[in-house]
Specification:
The complex is a heterodimer. By secondary structure, chain A is α/β, with parallel strands linked by helices. Helices cover 35% and strands 9% of the residues of chain A. Chain B has 8 helices and 2 strands; from the N terminus they run βαβααααααα. The chains are: A alpha/beta, B mainly alpha. Chains A and B meet through β4, α6, α7, α8 and α9 of A and α3, α4, α7 and α8 of B.
């Protein structure tokens, strides 16, 4: 080979190697284009249908119950404002007359609002739960999205795993149950994303309840090399044989090591439930609080890059307003507990952001149902604009402290912004936006500041 | 299923030709009519005798294209392992547990390993597997896949069992119950 020819071929080979996509260990082709502003994001779907008036509006009974003009902030871990002084019914004990004390972290450092950024009014795209949850995780319009159907468009979980290269146990969705199609939200039906980029989903109030103890808590322990390894080898052979008939079965893609970690985590949870040592908020008398406790356990064990947890107990407002304010008070308490836990964990403190946002609001006018305090209940309907009024509270290293944007009646931002904000924080905003599925008006909240 | 029909013919003892005397014309018409009716009723009786040929009923992996539901999987798995039916309330509960965990494969692993901790599970002895691996493999394929292994499958699994000292019927069953083919019917 002549020298000139050698140089030419070498140059072409080198150029080709440089131009060829670099396949990262995760299987993705390119590294994310953005940089991370923190290592972990906790995404709280403060869901169930939260009226703007009683939450960020801090008007307790003033805007909802005729004859009870008593305002006040019943979310004083998350929001800055004085608690109600009259007709206390949102706390614990008989009649809910004992407010849950503010957690010491917030007494010391101020509310989450004072530590972060509040978008006072954000536009929701749906007045329903499943639609609202879908807008939150897809960042997309949900036209055509059916109930009992996986998200039509890719979810934040799939974007993170595909474009961010995160492994399965880096991305979690902790659900507060299995009703309302909640288990369908951890990945979409989009053929280019889907199950292989899905999140690890767990609904701890189901998994670790009595049937879980009966059927799942007594798993036999196998030796990883001597027993599990040959068993998996035989399974792989059987799967290969079946694959020639097109019988492949897609999965979330936990590696064997990740599966062992999850199984060990489950065994630990069964032990902790039995011993009463699950990390729970000081008051844990409803499903949301218990779910958040398990979310903290997942955070502690897996240190995920992205954890989504959904709450929904406030939806009792369809029939009982007193229970609604009690659930909202507990949701605030639970989120406060989660943030407090994050600040106490050396791996999470200082590099974890939290994003809290409801999926939809509730009606401006009540229905006809009265509760034990003769307070009226509220539904959420598509023809009531109040059901499309939500807010977003964010804190952590990516957010400016003490910033309050927008105001009642002057919304700034959309619910779809929340997932793009998480993508922004974790360095894949351009990839998510470029995929072409987002609602066209969606922006990262960070870009709206 | 094929069936061969063997038909045997036999003459009825009740049917014989009758001679009628020529002088009895008067009553002959009536007698003939009676005989005609009688003859009409007398036909050679056909007795059908059916037999079944032994045919091996073997499914094929290629025919399995429907994914089992959680409830189907649990019910069939329990029957395969315990040789008895599972209570419907247990099926319902386990289905809910499966829904509560996003990784279905992991849920199946957890359930199977729980079943193997139950004293009621019906497993062949290790010695039986080692003494006659081919019979064990065939039985396992029939139990879990409702088909027979082909020669390549039988050979690979036999060699694998014989070359892995820690392999037990339990681990073989575990692999079959977790396999993709077992998720289909």
């Amino acid at each position: 080979m002549k020298r000139r020819e050698f140089i030419k071929k070498t140059a072409l080979t080198t150029a080709g190697a440089l131009a060829a996509p670099y396949i990262l260990p995760s299987g993705r082709l390119f590294a994310p284009t953005g940089s991370r502003s923190s290592q972990h994001v906790v995404f709280v779907m403060f869901a169930g249908g939260v009226r703007h008036q009683e939450s960020v509006g801090m008007r307790y009974l003033e805007d909802s119950q005729v004859g009870d003009p008593y305002p006040g902030n019943i979310m004083y871990n998350m929001l800055t404002g004085d608690a109600p002084t009259m007709k206390i019914a949102y706390g614990t004990g008989e009649g809910g007359i004992n407010p849950i004390p503010q957690l010491s972290h917030f007494s010391q450092f101020g509310s989450l609002q004072s530590q972060g950024t509040l978008f006072n009014e954000v536009a929701s795209l749906s007045s329903g739960h499943f639609g609202g949850l879908n807008t939150l995780i897809q960042g997309a319009d949900i036209a055509g999205q059916g109930l009992k159907q996986r998200p039509l468009n890719p979810t934040i979980f799939e974007y993170l795993r595909r474009h961010g290269g995160y492994k399965a146990t880096d991305v979690w969705f902790v659900g507060n149950g299995i009703d309302g199609s909640t288990p369908l939200l951890n990945y979409s039906g989009n053929p280019d994303y889907g199950i292989k980029y899905g999140a690890n989903f767990i609904a701890p109030t189901v998994t670790f309840d009595a049937p879980g103890f009966q059927h799942f808590s007594n798993a036999k322990i196998y030796h990883p090399e001597n027993e599990l390894s040959p068993m998996y080898a035989m399974k792989a052979f059987l799967d290969n044989s079946f694959a020639q008939y097109g019988g492949a079965l897609n999965a979330i893609g936990n590696t064997e090591e990740e599966k062992q970690q999850i199984k060990a985590f489950m065994n630990l949870m069964y032990d902790k439930v039995q011993n009463g040592t699950i990390m729970l908020p000081p008051v844990f008398d409803n499903g949301d609080a218990i779910t958040v406790g398990f979310a903290a356990e997942v955070m502690k064990e897996f240190k995920p890059a992205f954890l989504c947890v959904n709450l929904s107990n406030v939806d009792v407002c369809h029939s009982n307003f007193t229970s609604y304010v009690q659930a909202m008070h507990r949701a605030d308490h639970s989120v406060g507990f989660l943030w407090d836990f994050i600040q106490s964990d050396p791996d999470l403190a200082g590099n974890t952001d939290i994003i809290c946002i409801p999926e939809c609001g509730r009606n401006s006018d009540p229905n006809s149902i009265l509760d034990e305090n003769s307070w009226r209940a509220y539904d959420h309907n598509g023809d009531d604009l109040n059901s499309y009024r939500v807010w977003s509270l964010m804190a952590g290293p990516s957010f400016q402290a003490g910033l309050s944007l927008g105001s009642e009646g002057s919304p700034l931002g959309m619910v779809t912004d929340a997932m793009l904000t998480a993508a922004d924080i974790l360095g894949i905003k351009n990839e998510v936006a470029g995929a072409g599925f987002l609602h066209p008006d969606t922006l990262s909240f960070l870009d709206r500041i | 299923m094929e069936a061969n029909e063997k038909v045997t013919m036999k003459n009825s003892d009740t049917c014989r030709d009758q001679k009628v005397p020529s002088g009895m014309i008067g009553s002959a018409a009536g007698a003939l009519a009676a005989v005609a009716v009688f003859m009409q009723a007398c036909k050679k009786e056909q007795v059908g005798l059916y037999e079944l040929n032994d045919l091996a009923l073997v499914g094929s992996a290629a025919d399995k294209n429907k994914l089992k539901t959680n409830q189907q999987f649990v019910s069939i798995l329990y029957t395969n392992l315990f040789q008895s039916g599972i209570a419907s309330s247990d099926v319902f509960e386990i289905d809910r547990l499966f829904q509560s965990i996003g990784d279905s494969e992991l849920s199946r692993e957890v359930l199977i390993s729980n079943f193997f901790n139950d004293s009621g599970v019906q497993l062949p002895a290790v010695a039986d597997m080692n003494n006659d691996p081919d019979a064990f493999i065939e039985e396992t394929y029939k139990r879990f896949f409702v088909r027979l292994p082909n020669e390549a499958e039988k050979t690979w699994i036999r060699n694998f069992i014989q070359s892995n000292p820690y392999m037990t019927p339990e681990l073989v069953y575990f692999a079959f119950a977790l396999s993709n083919e077992y998720q289909y019917y």
